[in-house]
Design a protein that fits this description.
CATH class: Alpha Beta
Shape: globular
Length: about 170
């Protein structure tokens, strides 16, 4: 019984912090042609300088694990853009006031938001062919985001995000 409760709690916690990823790619591209990459020189990620470095380190590790090397003369460029936003709250407590009586009725209701606002971060990765200047693969992630976390947690979160984003690259 304790194992079932533990698994249920782990499932609930992990589903709340899930990273959602959408992919799109050009079906006519031969992904085996792409063995080297680099980042756009003037890339504006929308992240802090430290988070940008953490994310680029995580991307480099994922690409190297796939046998794709960082080089000055790449087959493709990677562009990364992000934005953070407040997720709309969908929970509230209603406080009502009504009248009593035979034919008399009426009421006033006020919704009071419960809980703190949830922040989300969306990060888009574009892979652009260097010779053709053509987008051939794109991934967009959306995940919960907390500003006040330790550097270790930020690093782990961005490594997990990169692993999730690149788990389906190259497409089969």
């Amino acid at each position: 019984m304790r194992k079932i409760v533990f698994l249920l709690v782990v499932t609930l916690v992990s589903s709340c912090n899930a990273i959602k990823v959408n992919y799109d790619y050009d079906k006519e591209v031969d992904f085996s042609d792409y063995t080297t990459y680099n980042y756009y020189p003037e890339m504006q990620t929308g992240l802090s300088e430290l988070d940008t470095k953490r994310l680029l380190d995580a991307v480099d590790a994922e690409m190297q694990a796939k046998g794709i090397q960082l080089t000055e003369e790449p087959d493709f460029f990677i562009n990364i853009e992000s934005n953070s936003f407040q997720k709309p709250r969908n929970n509230s407590v209603g406080v009502g006031l009504g009248g009593l009586g035979r034919s008399v009725g009426g009421g006033v209701s006020v919704g009071i938001p419960v809980g703190s606002p949830k922040m989300e971060r969306q990060i888009r990765f574009d892979f652009v062919d260097n010779e053709k200047d053509k987008l051939f693969w794109q991934s967009e992630s959306q995940s919960p985001f907390k500003e006040n976390v330790s550097p270790e947690e930020r690093d782990e979160n961005l490594r997990n995000l990169a692993a999730k984003v690149f788990e389906k690259y190259p497409p089969e």
